[in-house]
Amino acid sequence: MKFSMPILAIVVALLFVASQSVYTVDQRRFAVKFQLGEVIETKTTAGLYFKVPLVQNVKFYDKVNLTLDNPEPDRVTTSEKKPLLVDFVVLWRITDVKQYYISVQGDEEAARRRLSQTVRANLAEEFNKHDVHEAISSARDKITSVTQHKANADAKSIGVEVVDVRLRRVELPPDVTGPVYQRMESERRRVANELRSLGGAESEKIRADADRQRQVILADAYRQAQKIKGEGDAKAANIYAQAFQQNPEFYSFYRSMEAYKSSFRGKADVMVIEPNSDFFRYLRDSAGKASGRK
């Protein structure tokens, strides 16, 4: 029993020393080995590694992409000297863990501040080369691409890489938005009035053309009607003439009956005419013979 306690203590001590002598590097991390505060080795591949207990220690840093968010939109100026509010996001990662530790002491916040200053300065420089329309639409990808390239050149000095720069929002400041919207509204109103004027002129043109066509159609229809009516009257006259030639007495009798019918339509109709007039000859004599005057 007296000998078992020291042996147990030795075994525990050996296990402790062994556990302190081994460390594991995950595939998603870098490992930096220090000896008395000085970097002596870096591990970039996953695996099981050894160190000297109490003399050496290890720190781990992520290999994965990290995000840099801009807390407040930056105010930049375009080539037209117009202000814009720009909100961006940056993806970055550690590529040289030893240089990263030497440059920023492995402090992620310090690295973020350095990258933020670089990206903001480069974005402001690129926006200053373009007007508002280009900055918002056509030149947007070019601005982010050039900014990423320039920021990446500076980021290498601290052992990191800028993977991507993206613009989340580009807009006019509130103090500029109102006047811009008013100008846009005035311009749209001017265009609308111009279109209304053009529409009114086109409408009058269409109405005038329609009226002209109407008059032409009515005149042509009247001409055709008069022509047909004239042809009909000519045919009727020809028929009457042929009938008169076949039986003049019957024709005279028929015309007299039509005249009587037209003349005596109402009870109140009054005619002042001599009784022995030819108009009444068929009323005096069914044969239509005129009687001599006394």
What would your notes on this structure say?
The protein is an alpha+beta fold and 294 residues long. 54% of the residues lie in helices and 20% in strands. It has helices at residues 4-21, 97-104, 108-127, 132-136, 140-155, 174-246, 248-263, 281-284, and strands at 22-25, 29-35, 38-43, 47-50, 56-62, 66-69, 74-77, 83-94, 160-171. Strands 6, 7, 8 and 9 form a 4-stranded antiparallel β-sheet that branches. α6 (174-246) crosses α7. The protein is rod-shaped, with a radius of gyration of 56 Å. Residues 290-294 have low confidence and may be disordered.
Strand content: 15-25%
Radius of gyration: 56 Å
Average pLDDT for all residues: 83
Secondary structure category: alpha+beta
For the biggest sheet, the summary is: 4 strands, antiparallel
Count up the helices: 8
Unreliable residue stretches: 290-294
Judging from the principal axes of the Cα atoms, what is the shape? rod-shaped
- Topology order in helix (H) and strand (E) letters: HEEEEEEEEHHHHEHHH
Percent range for helical residues?
40-55%
The total count of strands amounts to: 9
Euclidean distance between termini CA atoms? 190 Å
